[in-house]
Amino acid sequence: MANSGVQLLGFGLSLIGIIGLIVGTILPQWKMSAYVGDSIITAVATYQGLWMSCAFQSTGQLQCKIYDSILQLD
Questions:
Q1: Is a pLDDT exceeding 80 seen at residue 64?
Q2: What is the pLDDT of residues 6-49, one digit of tens each?
Q3: Strands lying side by side in the sheet with 52-57
Q4: Where is the signal peptide (predicted)?
Q5: Going by DSSP bridges, is the β-strand pair 62-66/52-57 parallel, antiparallel, or unpaired?
Q6: Cα-based torsion angle of the residue sequence 6, 10, 11, 15 in order, rounded to the nearest 10 degrees
Q7: How far apart are CA 32 and CA 13, in angstroms?
Q8: Number of other residues whose CB lies within 10 A of the CB of residue 10
Q9: Which is nearest to 50 in space by CA: 21, 29, 35?
Q10: Three-state SS string across 18-55, please?
Q11: How far apart are CA 50 and CA 54, in angstroms?
């Protein structure tokens, strides 16, 4: 009985790990940086991930660019 409980616990933890792996791979927020100029109007936050880089401006605009080639990344 204890063996099946440990197996169910292991199965549940592996499912949580796979879901976390998929979410972490898809999200573009791997590297985040922000620039705030002299006023709030010039604030820009940049997000870089495995597949794209995004820039979010304080005016509400979000611009994303998908990488042309993964081999050219830093």
A1: yes
A2: 999 999 999 999 999 998 888 877 788 887 766 666 788 888 88
A3: 31-35, 44-48, 52-57, 62-66
A4: none
A5: antiparallel
A6: 150
A7: 29
A8: 10
A9: 29
A10: HHHHHHHHHCCCCEEEEECCCCHHHCEEEEECCCEEEE
A11: 11
